[in-house]
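Hi R.,

As promised on Friday, here is the backbone we talked about, encoded as C-alpha cells. Could you run it through your design pipeline when you get a chance and send me back a sequence?
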C-alpha cells in the first residue's frame, strides 16, 4: 500500500505531465473562421479579411500574436487561445476579444 505522501507525489507528477502534454500538443484543434465560437467573436484567421464596417474596433497592428489571450509567442504560426477554450488560432488572426499584450 502506498503512503499518502507517495500517492500525493505520484498524483501531482501525473497532473503536471498531463498539463504539459496538453499545453504542448500540436495545433490539431485549429479554430476555423466558420466555427460557431469564431463567428460569435468575429474571428478571422487572417487580419486582411476583417470587415472593418462590422468590427470598427479593429486597429492596424492588432492580431492574435499580440493579444494577451494568445498562449504562444510572436514567432509561433498558431497557438492556443484562452478565448477559444485553448483551441489553437492563427497568429495572423484577430477576434473581438483582442486585448493588448503586455
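Update: got your reply. Pasting your designed sequence below so it's all in one thread:
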Amino acid at each position: 500500500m502506498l503512503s499518502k505522501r507517495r500517492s500525493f507525489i505520484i498524483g501531482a507528477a501525473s497532473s503536471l505531465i498531463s498539463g504539459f502534454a496538453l499545453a504542448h500538443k500540436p495545433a490539431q484543434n485549429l479554430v476555423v473562421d466558420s466555427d460557431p465560437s469564431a463567428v460569435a467573436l468575429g474571428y478571422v484567421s487572417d487580419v486582411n479579411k476583417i470587415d472593418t464596417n462590422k468590427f470598427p474596433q479593429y486597429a492596424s497592428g492588432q492580431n492574435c500574436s499580440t493579444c494577451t489571450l494568445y498562449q504562444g509567442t510572436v514567432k509561433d504560426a498558431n497557438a492556443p487561445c484562452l478565448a477559444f477554450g485553448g483551441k489553437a488560432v492563427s497568429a495572423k488572426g484577430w477576434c473581438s476579444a483582442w486585448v493588448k499584450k503586455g
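One thing I noticed while checking it: Helices lie at 4-23, 36-41.

Thanks again,
M.
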